[in-house]
């Protein structure tokens, strides 16, 4: 199929970017979206033009590297699908496709479609773990975990840290990301001792960074490629409220 | 060992290499195998907690091995500098492992034990691994599960609240712990959270988007690394008392593999060029259940977890070139060839055997799909037996992934699968302490060669990565650091200056070629060549052909590669080019290793060496050794030197592997 692409080109963080138009004549419907961009980049290279920079790695939808706003939607039109797993069969001959980086104050553009998402690591550093040193663990069967909690914890733990939730949110809030981690650990017995402090510390950290506040729009859960439910945010709010009432304070 | 001391003969590589002194692991204690690790831990020297913060450790790579090692060394109080080329440590390729992690917990009471896991792993590796290391791996498997559960890894559980397990290829017990089809992700996020906790605690200094391009060796000790900040292009140096490489495997030498696009051999290869021996490079693993190639633009292959073979049945039509859709082929016109050829293990034979059987079927023109390069993996029996709901619960995400990529619904139509490169058993040579041949350079995870012999069993890579990272390296690195801190190394030290200059020169050379071909086009050509001649089946003729072609391809690459832009900022083509340049060198050593190893074992299948019924024919008398290669220098004069480590099997008697 023939496609017209309008791709955000930005040399670096200090220069202004713009949409640039490219034409591709021979796109196969079995290509992934990134393979289509590979074809564009091969062409640009041979034409002596700078290829489009974009983050990608596993191309299996699990590493969370790829991050593109496609026709206005983070990761594009297919539900529960990362950019790398989106295939061209979901587009039609003659389409014009807009490709942009994540747009959020907390994720500044580095170049073209590449953004800086290190703020997510900082949120995890503020409490997204169980404080257990290597070697100090009891036998794995010492504490049974009911299957429903284990399964729900797993569902929340599948977050890949791609940042689509932030990109989709009108406020640029990282609430769904933070809530997914709080939910994952808060549902497991291993996560209980730090549950209250974790919730308030992680929330305080995200507020301190350049993320906006959550106003329950729900766009995050709509675009999440792993289907993290909006209900995780309720759980975070619940834990934060409980922690605050019990007198816990952020570090 | 002495009977093997001979000059290479014509059949072993025609003087393409020199034969050096044998090497041996001298750090594994002589005690009974079950006591060795305890004995080694007891003899390992300790570092006073107050002194630890004065000692620094560089850990390159943040996958299961690197992330776990950096976190644990940080917890112990050492000053750790951790590096990854990705934007965050959580993206390391361990994240993509699907199926599970083995542990000899015997929670099922089905006859499992440390000894059985040890036995299965040695046998599965086709008797080409070191017994001491494998036994320790089996012992550590118990602690790994405990550690991960304590971190909050949400493993699959039964209604009792206890951990669920499943079976994997090459074993008859159910010892694989899993988190749906995303076990690697959950284990890595566990290690990542432990790592970030140490970053917060100030013990670990994290350097993402920083790629190691050379190793700094001072007075014979590994003391630092040269890196490129991929965002600014700056060439920087970091020094420490010791360097740990956990930089993964080299499957991307084939271009098409199940590895992440960024996975590369550069860190390990640069260490090899600085003197670390590279062991068994020809031992590569082809995974039997991957989604077949769909076109020339294909950028990578996607694996479908081996766990699918628990319930899926592999078949091809009995008639050659049968073009009917699979659902129209009646039961008695299907050949369930794995069940037919290997009745004891059926669809659960080890990976190398399942892969080769698929290749044989396709070579004999029974293959299905485009180009006849595929076989069916059929779930209709399982769906009928267990119900769609149960199948969905077990494999739902894999089925979705398959459908997303191919557009076919595996609940309705059998999957099409074909083998693809997935894992590399070879890697930098290490002793029992995971020390390479450069003092102060440790190697963990897939980057070392140690535990899987010539073939790795499913769900053992995660186990090895975490065993190395959480439990082995922290002990053995501490033992090494008992002699530290060493004299600080300044930026003006000649070894540092030389490493920085040679790194700059390489980058300038790549950028100034300004030729006519893209990096990917060279990588594809190299990959196709290595896949054809050093892939699922290898022959003397093919390997010699590859060995003749690779140097000229490499020369063309350096002369004709085209990279747009400069090295002063983010330049992804430049990053790729540096990695492909190293694959070009590694590929030659792989083919040489494959040529010299005149036997078939595990993933290394030489067509000249097979049994009457087409199975791998090992030659224990002549090849029961680890081939550890020493870098021979650049140019035509350079040829690698082979050092042999004799393998001793005192606990598992080598036999022909039989899964019939």
TrEMBL record, chain A:
Query: Mind listing the UniProt keywords for this protein, alphabetically?
Result: 2Fe-2S, 3Fe-4S, 4Fe-4S, Iron, Iron-sulfur, Metal-binding, Oxidoreductase, Tricarboxylic acid cycle
Location of the 4Fe-4S ferredoxin-type domain? 150-179, 205-234
Which InterPro entries does its entry note? 2Fe-2S_ferredoxin-like_sf, 2Fe-2S_ferredoxin-type, 2Fe2S_fd_BS, 4Fe4S_Fe-S-bd, 4Fe4S_Fe_S_CS, Beta-grasp_dom_sf, Helical_ferredxn, SDH/FRD_Iron-Sulfur
Task: Name the Enzyme Commission number(s) assigned to this protein.
Answer: 1.3.5.1
- Reaction catalyzed: a quinone + succinate = fumarate + a quinol
Q: Which residues form the 2Fe-2S ferredoxin-type domain?
A: 18-103
Family under the similarity heading:
Belongs to the succinate dehydrogenase/fumarate reductase iron-sulfur protein family.
What name has this protein been given in UniProt? Answer: Succinate dehydrogenase iron-sulfur subunit
Name the species this protein comes from: Actinomycetospora endophytica
Organism classification, top ranks?
Bacteria, Bacillati, Actinomycetota, Actinomycetes, Pseudonocardiales
UniProtKB/TrEMBL annotation, chain B:
Q: Which residues form the FAD-dependent oxidoreductase 2 FAD-binding domain?
A: 57-462
Ranges annotated as biased composition (Basic and acidic residues): 24-37
Q: Which UniProt keywords apply?
A: Flavoprotein, Oxidoreductase
Q: Where is the Fumarate reductase/succinate dehydrogenase flavoprotein-like C-terminal domain?
A: 523-659
What residue spans carry the Polar residues bias annotation?
1-12
The question of whether Oxidoreductase is a record keyword is answered with: yes
InterPro entries recorded: FAD-dep_OxRdtase_2_FAD-bd, FAD/NAD-bd_sf, Fum_R/Succ_DH_flav-like_C_sf, Fum_Rdtase/Succ_DH_flav-like_C, SdhA/FrdA/AprA, Succ_DH/Fum_Rdt_flav_su, Succ_DH/fumarate_Rdtase_cat_sf
Task: From the UniProt entry, list the residue stretches annotated as the region Disordered.
Answer: 1-37
Its protein name is Fumarate reductase/succinate dehydrogenase flavoprotein subunit
From which source organism is this entry?
Actinomycetospora endophytica
> What does the record give as the organism's lineage?
Bacteria, Bacillati, Actinomycetota, Actinomycetes, Pseudonocardiales
